């Protein structure tokens, strides 16, 4: 079972709605604006007929058997297609050997979003990347597909998934995903943005998503205590790069002020560039509960859009 200690918290998101702020490909009467009319040829499910609506898609054969009116729903009828992209590089395993690391936090948030989007009848898919794309699923609305997504997420928090030296190449992965995701969709990225790539390269890839008319949300996942404030005890420490395994020995007090200043500037640059590109950014501090991060964002987005 996926995150038995979090099931109640995840379930609390069932009645919330995550709205797209722009046109997406979906059903014209759904939650989200759509540029298209009509239906696809891929049948998804039945729903009860609402009095007053067109009888064009009533399943008369089912009516003959059940004496109840049902309307056929098709895959294109879903409100939107949501793609959750997770950075699974080794830096996301910080703090190392701790259950609640950045990847675990991202997975919990992703599970809550899948539950919420599924409940509002949106199609959901996930993509995983480090130095290359490790998994890319289609966006589907079926319960079987959702269970499979939960299974893939559960693998990421398995203790065996803790190997170091998985480098980040976010820009390459995002470019590929932008090119291969043809329908306009809601794209949600979870990453710590710790990479040997330049921030310009990463945002060039995010601009590619925006060029493809995707609605992009970025969750900047970080540990405010250690990664931002560099709050380590006043004694020599050995720091290891989790992606390259390079080592550095130093006393945190010697560089804390300089380090914190640089990290603050980096975070402010991320926020500024997201604003420039009309990308929503969420500061996801793993020292808070996932509901403290998700709930205010979802409520704010509902009010705005």
What does this structure look like?
37% of the residues lie in helices and 19% in strands. The chain is α/β, with parallel strands linked by helices and 305 residues long. The chain has two domains: 234 residues, 3-Layer(aba) Sandwich (Rossmann fold), CATH 3.40.50; 35 residues, no CATH class. It is elongated and about 80 Å long. About 6% of the residues have low confidence.
Number of domains: 2
User: How many helices in DSSP terms?
Assistant: 9
Sheet/helix structural class: alpha/beta
Number of DSSP E strands = 10
Tell me what portion of residues adopts beta-strand conformation. 15-25%
Helix content: 25-40%
Please summarize the sheet with the most strands.
6 strands, mixed
Mean pLDDT reading: 85
CATH structural architecture of the largest domain: 3-Layer(aba) Sandwich
Outline type: elongated
Return residue spans where pLDDT drops below 50 for at least 5 consecutive residues: 23-41
- CATH homology group of the largest domain: von Willebrand factor, type A domain
